[in-house]
Every structure is written in structure tokens, then in C-alpha cells.
Design a protein that fits this description.
alpha/beta, seven-stranded mixed β-sheet, three-stranded mixed β-sheet, globular
Length: 293
């Protein structure tokens, strides 16, 4: 049985809007994550290392109070659902905290950005469509964007075997794309986050082209591409877990990773900038929008 905890706060207000995902707020009805991606930034970062799933049993009641106050002041903004876990882990089928949270979000007409690897999101298409229609966007976004719901899946590679090793609790990449296509067929605004791309596995031009083509073929409205970050040196931290996986299956790549991540949590700014530049160029060639706006 998962742990049950009482939350003091559910709605987190960001200091400034996220320039990639456009969220002003975030909520996490659960702690930990059973998707269990080895590279997850929760492992070893300032956000903690514990991936055991815990249920915030009072999440709907706390969210109701917090959103009521924000709505009363017209402090509308996009809510990321969820930012530190997958909102549609298997436990959601039973506990339904994500669905209850969406019902409250709809009541107060806040827009959402939902990122999930799970097909369970299809259960909530009714709510997501209504949020898309009725949400009130913050005034400074209204001239640039007109949707109340952004739906995205994240994919680090199209290779199912590779994905299974680094994302052992996630559905295969093809299934995620098919789920996204069904969300698009339901009339929602959809995208694919190729975040993180995996160095020397899925960040070449050929891989970026294949992934972008797959996103387009499944109806994506946009894509985003981001680098891999790895944190910590303890047994449960993402850097050590990831490096151990390399040692086991891809030892020939370990020296290159050690050189890139030896003294940093991520690649250099130059490498990150070049990755985005290449991704944008490929999107231009394939007539695919890069980024939400």
C-alpha cells in the first residue's frame, strides 16, 4: 500500500512563467513516481531522491481553497499537472486525485499543461476538452495563445528496448504516440517533449528527424527538445543509476558520458544551444512547430 500524507499546500506559484512549458503554477497530487525513469531530475537534485509513491489524500480540498483565492483575485495562469511525477501513474486509476484536481481546476477555469507518458489520460478527455473551452488565460498570453489545455507526452527515444532500460515503468514510445494521437483526435492541442534526449543515443540529426517525423505523423501541434541532466553521486541518484546502466549495457559510451558530466549536472551551454538549433532547423524542414507559442 502506498503511503498516505496530508499536504499543507498543493498549488505552487512560480516566481516567473516557465518559458518552455508556459506554466505559472504546478500541482502534484502524488509524491514519488512509479514510472521510475533512471534519469529523472527528482533523483539526487534539490527536489529529493525518494521515488516511492505517496498519496496526498487531502489534495482536492487544499487545491479548492487555494484556487478559490487565486480566482477571486483573477490571478489566472497555466497549471502544470504534474511537474514532479506522472499524473497518470497506475495508482491514479484507483485514487483519482488527478481527475478530482482537474474537476476543481475546471470549476475555477484555470488552464492546464498536462505531461504524461500514460494512456490513462484518455479517461479524462471529457474534462480536458471542457477545460480547453472554458479556461481563462492570463491577460499577457491571450494575444499569443488561445487554448485552455496543452497535452503532451515525453519521449527520450523511439527505440523500445532502449526506452525500457532507461524508463522501466513507462509504456513503449509508440504507445505514447498513439495516445497523443487520440488526444489530438479529441480536438486537443498536443505536443511531444523530446526531453531528455539521450546523448549518443537519440540526439543526432537522424534521430531528431525520425522523432520529429513520428510526432508529426501522430498529429502533434508542436515539439520541444531538451538535454539530459544527471544529479548526485549516491546509489539512488540519477547520475549513478544512469552510469551503472551504461556500464552494464553500453560500456563503450561511458568515457564520453564521464567527460560530459564529470563536473556538471548537464552538458555545456554550447552543446545545449547547438541541440536546440539543430532541432529547430529540422522542425523547419519538416514543417513542424518548435515550441508552444
Amino acid at each position: 500500500m502506498p503511503r498516505e500524507i496530508l499536504a499543507k499546500s498543493i498549488l505552487n506559484k512560480h516566481k516567473k512563467r516557465d518559458s518552455w512549458f508556459l506554466d505559472d503554477y504546478s500541482i502534484n497530487p502524488y509524491m514519488g513516481c512509479s514510472v521510475n525513469c533512471l534519469y529523472c531530475y527528482i533523483r539526487g537534485s534539490k527536489y529529493g531522491v525518494d521515488m516511492r509513491v505517496a498519496v496526498k489524500t487531502n489534495a482536492p480540498e487544499v487545491l479548492e481553497k487555494q484556487l478559490a483565492r487565486r480566482a477571486e483575485k483573477s490571478e489566472y495562469g497555466i497549471i502544470a499537472v504534474a511537474s514532479a511525477t506522472d499524473a497518470y501513474m497506475p495508482i491514479e486509476a484507483e485514487r483519482q486525485l488527478t481527475r478530482q484536481s482537474l474537476q476543481i481546476i475546471l470549476r475555477y477555469r484555470f488552464p492546464v499543461h498536462v505531461i504524461s507518458k500514460s494512456s490513462l489520460i484518455l479517461r479524462d478527455l471529457d474534462l480536458l476538452r471542457t477545460i480547453d473551452e472554458q479556461a481563462i488565460l492570463p491577460q499577457d498570453l491571450q494575444a499569443q495563445f488561445s487554448r485552455g489545455a496543452i497535452i503532451a507526452t515525453s519521449i527520450s527515444t523511439l527505440d523500445a528496448e532502449l526506452a525500457q532500460r532507461f524508463e522501466p515503468g513507462a509504456p513503449p514510445p509508440q504507445q505514447r504516440l498513439e495516445t497523443l494521437a487520440r488526444c489530438k483526435d479529441a480536438g486537443l492541442f498536443c505536443g511531444v517533449h523530446f526531453i531528455p534526449t539521450l546523448p549518443f543515443f537519440s540526439d543526432s540529426d537522424a534521430h531528431l528527424r525520425d522523432m520529429t517525423s513520428a510526432a508529426k505523423a501522430h498529429g502533434a501541434d508542436f515539439v520541444l527538445v531538451g538535454s539530459l541532466t544527471l544529479f548526485g553521486h549516491e546509489p539512488a541518484d540519477s547520475k549513478l543509476l544512469y552510469f551503472n546502466m551504461l556500464k552494464r549495457y553500453y560500456p563503450e559510451l561511458l568515457p564520453q558520458y564521464q567527460a560530459r558530466y564529470a563536473s556538471s549536472t548537464g552538458p555545456s551551454f554550447a552543446i545545449q544551444r547547438q541541440l536546440e538549433k539543430r532541432a529547430r532547423a529540422i522542425c523547419g524542414q519538416l514543417d513542424m512547430k518548435y515550441g508552444i507559442l
